[in-house]
Amino acid sequence: MIVMHTKTGVRLLGLVLVGVVLAWGAVWAKEINVPGDFPKIQEALNAAEPGDVIVIAGGDYTENLLITKSVTLQGAGRDFVSIIGDGVVPAVVIAKAQNVGISGVTITNGRNGIEMADSSLTLTNVVLKKNIRRGLSAERSVVEIKESEVLETQPDAEGFQGSGIRIADHSKVTITNVTVADNARVGVTVSDSSEATITGSKVLGTKPNASGAYGWGIDVSVNSKATIRENTVSGNTAVGIGITENSQAVIESNQIADQKPDGSGVRGYGILIQLGSKAEIRNNTLTRNTDVAIFATERTEVVIDGNQIADTQPNTFGFRGRGIQVGFLSKGTVTNNTLTNNSEVGIYIVDRSEATVENNTVTGTKSAPGSPFAAAIDFDYNVKGIINNNTIDNTIEFGITVFDCPGLVQVTNNRIARMKASSRGFGRGVEVEYSQGVTVSGNTITDTENQGIAVFGSEVEIAGNTIQRTTFRAVYITQNSRGTIAKNTVTETQLSADGFFGEGISILGASNFTITENTISGNRRGIVVGNQGTQVRIDKNIIDRNNILGTGTNAAATGALGIYVIDHAEALVTNNQITNNRIGILTDNTGEVTSCTGNTFQGNQLNTQGHVRCG
């Protein structure tokens, strides 16, 4: 006789007994055939014990099933076995049953194809088709769906629901290689503190409800979490993937295309993040969505990295068509994305938000039909952040705009080329309007059709930029602006079509600036200072070979000037190298150089003319 006196011995005995019970259950688990053993599936379910397998032969089975125990329904194939509900109650109800398996069947005409609560289910090679309200609805459950289809779920007679898959109330779902297509309202909805992993699946063609609302592909809401990876989300209405109401998601390597506007005519977003949600959006391809491809708003936090975003379409009213928008008290990191041929704005940060926009490539942004405005990158209304090391090419109207931003904005190390003039005539590299604390530094701006850098009513530091072959003006400052222009290279500014402008740096409109340590050459006019109240210090610059001739008969009109002070403006000119210009310094009858000391004049046809006294 063996006596066990220790806790270890008791545990060993318990493990042995558990093993015996499991083995006994496996021995007694049986296979039940329908219609061989029972003509109805429900009769087989009633007779089954936990662990039994119910094998269903080909045929149509018009019945509504209730599953309350751990069993497997194994059909002969989804093309051969149909479970047809009565359209009044769910075709299959699973209640407080664990480890249920269903495979190889089609389930149709249920008021809910499958409805489950407090259960667990594995669904394999199943079709849920033309059910009413929902294809599958799960609450407080664990669900695995794989190699299946959820198709053509219909709203009820009152026009409600019609969703493909609903996962709610602290449930968990894994969806793998599943097609969810042509449902109504939402393809897949995950809500109320639930979790989802959706991989390798297709969510297609979700339709709006009778009022024209919804039609979303995937909706994750109310404190839920999701990983959405390597799926195709296409042809849905209003939203392809939506993460809302304090939810979290990783959205990665998906193909997201052709979302259509809803009844409002506005939304057709590829991805929507809103209402306190957080998301990482990485390496997706978004094409031909409507209004905004990726839209994060209302106190969200997003990382948007490595995505390909192209051909976003304007909405029904002819506006927008934006690539990325982060707005309304949100925070965004927007990096390493490629945006091509979108409308109105490539990357739009707006409304008291904060963002780092870095290492993106934005090309071909164009005006939408309803408005001439277009910008590759736009910071608008009380935004703080960094715009760094982006490549912007062949865009209409504006490369980068900063508007009404009283906080700190840094525009650094960007490459901006081939800006095209819009119908309004604007084709500018960087524009800063009514903003404070803006730094524009280290950028390369070439071949713009209307001004390299333009500043209106702002405080700005412009430093270390290279601005070449812009048209009209390389740097244009006006409307009571303040700041410093330092260590820039400004060359070869082009004349306007009528032979005017071609100005390197123009300070107008009662502005106050220091221009120091710049190289300004090959322009029609190197520096222009104009308008009453404008005061400029010009110090330690190289002002060379500004000798392009424009239209006109007098010295001012024809140009080829180093420095030109006009219209009651005042300039302090010190310690500059002013060389090889037609005229070094020129004023009109009202402009004045108040001090002219320490300058080097060489190779000019005429060093000074007008109200200039150089010591």
TrEMBL record:
Pathway: Protein modification; protein ubiquitination. The keyword Repeat applies. Residues 156-297, 320-456 form the Carbohydrate-binding/sugar hydrolysis domain. Pfam families: Beta_helix, NosD. Keywords: Repeat, Ubl conjugation pathway. The keyword Repeat applies. NCBIfam families: para_beta_helix. This is Hypothetical conserved protein.
